[in-house]
Each structure stands twice: as structure tokens, then as C-alpha cells.
Amino acid sequence: MISYFSELRYKEVIDVSSGFRLGYVCDAEFDDAEGRLISLITPGRAKLFGLMGREDDYVIPWACIARIGSDIILVDTKEPLQRRKRKRRSFL
Q: Which of 5, 44, 67, 75 could join 55 via S-S bond, C-beta 3.0 to 4.6 A?
């Protein structure tokens, strides 16, 4: 199966060990020196229907990815996932 990088944004990420839905891929970290993907990033859950912003993003290391299917990505995390603070955007 051949997939494009842009198709990752439409795949839902689920943790196999807990069954927790982490969301959809919003970004990825790429090491240009070695030419490989380091991790996938999914946004945190919305607070109060998105009016109060979002929680920190989930950073999923590439080593934790168990399977990439046609519409889903299964991850197997042995320990809690690393979280990354979401950068605030100013509109002014």
C-alpha cells in the first residue's frame, strides 16, 4: 500500500493498550539530517467546546506506532505519552 504524507491528517490515532482515542494527526516531526520521521503529533482535547482553548498536544514517537491502516493508526504506548504545550496565536 502506497500512502502520501498528506493522508496522515485524515487518519485517527488510537492507543491499543487503553483503547483511548488520541485524535487525528495534525503534524509530524521530521529529522532532515537522517531523513526519517521522529514522531506524529495529535492536538489535545478541546476545553469547553473549544471556547477555552485546547489541552497540550500528544507527541507519539515513531517507535510506538504498531500499525498504519487505510483509515486508522494504532499505537502501543507502554508509558504515558509526552505532551507538548500548544503555542498561542495572536491575531493582532
A: 44
Predicted structure pTM score: 0.75
Question: To which residue does cell 491499543 refer?
Answer: 16
Tens digits of pLDDT across the chain (92 residues): 667 778 888 899 999 988 889 889 988 888 999 988 899 988 877 777 666 767 788 899 999 999 999 889 999 987 777 677 766 555 55
> What is the secondary structure of the chain as a DSSP string?
----GGGGGG-EEEETTT--EEEE--EEEEETTTTEEEEEEEPPPBSGGGTT-B-PEEEEEGGGEEEE-SSEEEE--SSPPEEEPPPP----
Measured CA to CA, the distance from residue 73 to residue 59 in angstroms comes to 14
